[in-house]
Write a sequence for this structure.
């Protein structure tokens, strides 16, 4: 039974007490066999992936690190630093010194080692060795992972969530059950190397195939050794988190390293391509700019001026503007675009400035002439111009825009303002001419509208508020993820089945549960703080009239899901309380049955043993006549039969114990089977002894042997056995009856029975001899 109030994360700091990192690696219940097997295989493969760079490897993780040599070599490989020179002696003190050097190096990297000492590593303590390797993995493989301001375990989890988000049937929320079906491993590989895996052919109901496929592809194409067994993961209710994290961190380092190399190569290719493109642009600009000259501009203007005198004024204005526009677009604008594409330090003189100046002079002069001739036409044109701009300036698209979209709108507005400033002189000229003609109102109003319709301060405020919301979203995601993992682990542990065999075990579970309940108020404060972050987002949006675009972009964990899981935890806690109390009552009842049986067994067992010893003494002493002995033995047999109710009562108590499925009893060494054998042997012995006396009486009467002759035989037997050698022989060979347990009472039963038989045999020999 895993202690569910212990946290699963040892990588992050500053967490609340309900998620404290594991530190006591020497606790008996820290690792169950399944988890220890997964960690042993994963950590061994991880160590070998680094040790092979130095031309060596390990086979047994707790044995091969005992002398400290390969441990120091491992640290040198993964850190790139030199450790102090190791001691090459094979004595225990040399091994301890080497391991201490390695532990000191780990501590120098800011890692706090708790309950891990050199002596335990040298002694081959498996749990301590696994704890030390996990500490090394955390420091050198996981701690430096950073994704969107989150680091270590949370950063690795966020990276996995981002990479697997587009894939169906994949929802990475932790480093244990989220990986059992194998789809998450395949999704990571497919996201970076889609040619290696046909993801659409994978089935969620075939986890073993999925896991083996990912492991084999990673080992063959990504140089990631196989660190896990598919059968172990599928066959475990909750795979070991540390083993999964270690293996997934290898994917992170493999893909991030490949991405950096690819980015560098792309940059080099891009620089070369840009240089070649710049050379082509410079050639095209020189060629095109030579065709666009002042003479060409004048010819176009003269040609269109003649058409002004031949056609209606408004149509001429339109034709002139269109001709100039088309010609300018097809030539000068092409030159301008080409020029803008060429870096500033490569541009050719001031050809662009000269060309722009020529066009501006001709274009302005023609427009001024046409304004003077027909102000109505110009006003109409200005109205059309403003109408197009007004649609853009008055729309409130920023109200529902995201932070990135707001920044794009601001850049677009800055470009518009720059363009407006560039045309300001021309607008002023038009206004001056219109003023001279005493019809300036409409034109001036249009100019004022263009300058004032846009309120940049409002959109700037909106951008600031969206940035605040984005920061709150990120804070929510960083705190919601570990809290959600804690709740899932708590729910799983609260629903776990438990099997105990005595009061001490159930009391241990109750103590652990009480400790867990003590953390609930602190956990509830964390939940309220997380919900307060979401409430602050809603408050900012409502106050500023911002329509939120959708859910939190940094996490899929919603406030409602947190409340739902918290409510479930609150319901499961009293259910767990009830189950534990019911089990405690059952164990107390079982303990009462044990004591009740033991009290009777501890009386019946010695009583049977004493009776067997008495029968043995009666068989040897044989005081009085055979008839007196027979009478005495029958009375003795009746007293034994009268004791039967005690045996029956003991059988009844034993039946209650069996019904309660109790298989051990620390209060007595007697078992019901042992007592049954002793009781049956007692009855058999007294019956045989009585039968032998009866046979002796029949033989005596048939042979006519007197009482004095029997007394002589008994004296002779005792003389030859005066040192009790017969009893010594019987004790020496007491295992002759394998069905009787090796106890003192069993020995006495066998000895008394055989001694009586030997005495009877001697008796018959003597009678026949006489």
């Amino acid at each position: 039974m895993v202690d569910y109030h212990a946290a699963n994360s040892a990588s992050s700091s500053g967490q609340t007490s309900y998620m404290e990192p594991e530190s006591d690696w020497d606790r008996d219940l820290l690792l169950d066999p399944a988890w220890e097997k997964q960690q042993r295989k994963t950590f061994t493969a991880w160590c070998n992936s680094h040790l092979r760079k130095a031309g060596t490897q390990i086979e047994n993780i707790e044995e091969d690190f005992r002398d400290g040599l390969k441990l120091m070599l491992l640290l040198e490989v993964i850190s790139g630093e030199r450790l102090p020179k190791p001691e090459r002696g094979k004595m225990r003190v040399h091994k301890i010194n080497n391991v201490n050097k390695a532990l000191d190096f780990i501590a120098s990297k800011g890692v706090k080692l708790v309950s891990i000492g050199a002596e335990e590593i040298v002694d081959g303590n498996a749990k301590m060795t696994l704890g030390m390797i996990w500490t090394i993995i955390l420091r050198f493989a996981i701690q430096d992972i950073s994704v969107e301001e989150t680091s270590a375990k949370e950063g690795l989890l966020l990276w996995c969530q981002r990479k697997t988000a587009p894939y169906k049937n994949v929802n990475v929320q932790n480093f244990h059950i989220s990986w059992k079906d194998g789809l998450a491993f395949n999704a990571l590989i497919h996201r970076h190397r889609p040619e290696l895996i046909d993801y659409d052919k994978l089935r969620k109901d075939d986890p073993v195939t999925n896991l083996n496929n990912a492991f084999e592809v990673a080992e063959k194409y990504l140089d990631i050794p196989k660190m896990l067994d598919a059968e172990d993961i599928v066959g475990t209710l909750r795979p070991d988190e540390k083993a999964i994290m270690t293996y997934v961190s290898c994917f992170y380092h493999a893909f991030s390293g490949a991405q950096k190399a690819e980015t560098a190569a792309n940059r080099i290719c891009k620089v070369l391509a840009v240089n070649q493109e710049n050379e082509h642009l410079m050639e095209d600009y020189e060629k095109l700019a030579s065709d666009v000259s002042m003479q060409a501009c004048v010819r176009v203007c003269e040609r269109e001026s003649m058409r002004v005198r031949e056609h209606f004024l408004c149509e001429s204005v339109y034709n002139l503007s269109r001709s100039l526009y088309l010609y300018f677009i097809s030539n000068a604008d092409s030159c301008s675009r080409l020029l803008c594409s060429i870096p500033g330090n490569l541009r050719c003189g001031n050809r662009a400035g000269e060309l722009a100046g020529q066009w501006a002079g001709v274009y302005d002069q023609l427009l001024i002439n046409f304004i003077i001739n027909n102000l109505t036409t110009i006003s109409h044109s200005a109205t059309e111009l403003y109408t197009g701009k007004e649609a853009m300036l008055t729309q409130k698209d920023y109200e529902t825009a995201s932070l990135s979209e707001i920044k794009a709108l601001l850049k677009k507005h800055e470009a518009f303002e720059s363009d407006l400033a560039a045309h300001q002189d021309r607008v002023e000229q038009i206004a001056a001419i219109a003023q001279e003609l005493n019809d300036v109102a409409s034109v001036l109003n249009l100019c004022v509208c263009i300058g004032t319709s846009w309120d940049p301060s409002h959109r700037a405020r909106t951008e600031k508020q969206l940035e605040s919301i984005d920061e709150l979203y990120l804070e929510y995601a960083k705190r919601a993820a570990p809290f959600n993992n804690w709740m899932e682990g708590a729910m799983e542990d609260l629903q776990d089945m438990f099997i105990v065999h005595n009061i001490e075990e159930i009391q241990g579970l109750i103590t652990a549960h009480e400790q867990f309940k003590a953390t609930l108020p602190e956990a509830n404060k964390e939940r309220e703080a997380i919900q307060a972050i979401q409430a602050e987002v809603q408050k900012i949006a409502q106050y500023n009239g911002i329509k939120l675009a959708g859910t939190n972009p940094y996490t899929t964990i919603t406030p409602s899901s947190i409340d739902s899981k918290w409510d479930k935890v609150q319901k499961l806690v009293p259910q767990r309380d009830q189950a534990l109390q019911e089990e405690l009552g059952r164990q107390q009842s079982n303990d009462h049955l044990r004591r009740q049986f033991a009290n009777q067994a501890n009386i019946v067992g010695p009583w049977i043993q004493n009776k067997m010893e008495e029968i043995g003494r009666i068989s040897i002493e044989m005081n009085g006549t055979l008839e007196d002995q027979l009478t005495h033995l029958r009375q003795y047999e009746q007293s034994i039969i009268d004791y039967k109710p005690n045996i029956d009562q003991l059988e009844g108590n034993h039946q209650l114990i069996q019904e309660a499925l109790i298989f051990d009893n620390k209060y007595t060494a007697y078992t019901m089977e042992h007592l049954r054998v002793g009781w049956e042997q007692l009855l058999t012995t007294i019956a045989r002894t009585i039968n032998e006396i009866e046979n002796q009486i029949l033989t005596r009467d048939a042979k006519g042997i007197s009482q004095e002759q029997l007394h002589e035989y008994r004296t002779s037997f005792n003389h030859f056995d005066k040192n009790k050698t017969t009893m010594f022989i019987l004790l020496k060979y007491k295992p002759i009856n394998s069905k009787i347990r090796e106890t003192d009472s069993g020995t006495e039963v066998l000895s008394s029975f055989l001694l009586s038989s030997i005495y009877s045999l001697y008796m018959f020999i003597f009678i026949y001899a006489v």
